[in-house]
Structures are given as structure tokens and as C-alpha cells.
Amino acid sequence: MKTAIKILVIFVMIAMQSCTTKKENSIVYKTDTLVIELITPTVFKHVSYLQTNDFGNVPCNGMIYITDNQALVFDTPTSDAVSKELIDWITTKKKATVSGVVVNHFHKDCLGGLNAFHQHNIPSYANNLTIELAKKQNDVLPENGFEEKLTLTLGSHKVSTRFLGEGHTKDNTVSYVEDENVLYGGCMLKSLKASKGNLEDANVSAWSTTVAKVKRTFPNIKTVIPGHGKVGDASLLDYTIQLFK
Questions:
Q1: CA–CA separation, 89 and 93 (whole Å)
Q2: Residue 82 contacts residue 33 (beta carbons within 8 Å)
Q3: Catalytic residues
Q4: 14 Cβ contact partners less than 8 Å away, ≥ 6 residues apart
Q5: Are 186 and 171 in contact (CB under 8 A)?
Q6: pTM of the entire structure?
């Protein structure tokens, strides 16, 4: 009996060590200004920081998709300097060409570092309404607009970006990596246990309806990257729907 207990304890310790190692290994790059985390073999989360009056120094998520020696970035880091740091990591460490950057909505945590991408001759994309709202703020503007749907390809691999309604902002979009069933939800989707957050430009009454439409449009979601906080599964959509009902 004692031998069986000892074996069980050793097994649990090995399992815990394995989980810890996996968690540590998921962070592939880290400085004071930028963190890059491996989510799937081809999808990464990038995290930069935005100083705000109401919420302090806020970690802000974005997504990177790398395949066939090409990359797409979804939301820029919060400044041009950190965007350059991200571009350097992709081109130097991953040996990939950045084929484009997609802006989720018009806030600084999505396009604050856009100029660095333009300086590297990387094309940028956004909902036409995002471009209109960014123009009113005198921000650097995404170059290529779309109405409801944008499909970008890396070789034979597709990423679909959709505008499905208002929520966190009137222009917020989502992006779906089909091969990996990964959804980048931006600030419209909340991490588990998160609060409602910044509602300054929100349409609270439409928020749940829009997320429900996202859920119907992409029924095979396995992984969700929210605009802030931890990555989760499709339950983040249900959590967000309930939060704003």
C-alpha cells in the first residue's frame, strides 16, 4: 500500500512539473515592453502595455499567425518602438516576412504602433469605419479598408476578419485562423472573470447580440484570444454574452 502511495505521489509530482514546464515554455520572448507567447504551433499572442488614467498600465493582447515563412499581425503593439521590436522578432527569429497587419478597432491598443509597420512597407487593413474613426483622432490610418469581410491568405492558409456588429466599439471586428480554429476577439471578448472594462465608446445593448453572431459564424472555435487577459476556449464567448445581458 505504501509503495502504491509513493508511486502515486511521484506520478503527481512529474505531472505537475510537466505542466509547469509547458507553461514556462509557452513564453518564447520577453522584455519589459513586449511578451510573445506560443498558443498553437503557428499562432502567437503578443502583449504590450498601455498607460491609462482609469486602469493603470494595461497589458494589451494581439495575435501573430506564422506559416510558410510568412506572417500576419493582428493589432499593433501600443507604440512604434514596440512594433519595431515585434517586427524584428518575426523577421530575425522566425525568418518570416510580415505580409500584413490587421487593426481590430480604432483605439490606441490596436493601432498605436501602426506607423512602424508602414515604415517597413507592410500593408495594413481595417474596417472602413475604423479608418473613419481613426481619422477623427488624427491617428495614423490603416491603408486598406473593407466593409464586412476581409480574407487574407498565407499560401493556402486563410484568415477571415469579420465585422459582425457593435460591442466594445461601433467598429470592432474579429479574426479567425481557419487551420487552427483560433479566434482573435480583441476587446469585444472578455477573459474569464474579467470586468466590463472601458465602456467609453461601447454599445452595451448590442454587445451580447454581436458576440452571439460571432459564435454562430465560427462554430468550430477551439481557442480565443481576448483583447486583454488570458487566452481561453469558446467559453469566453458565453462569458461575454452573459456579462452584457
A1: 5
A2: yes
A3: 105, 107, 109, 168, 187, 190, 198, 228
A4: none
A5: no
A6: 0.89
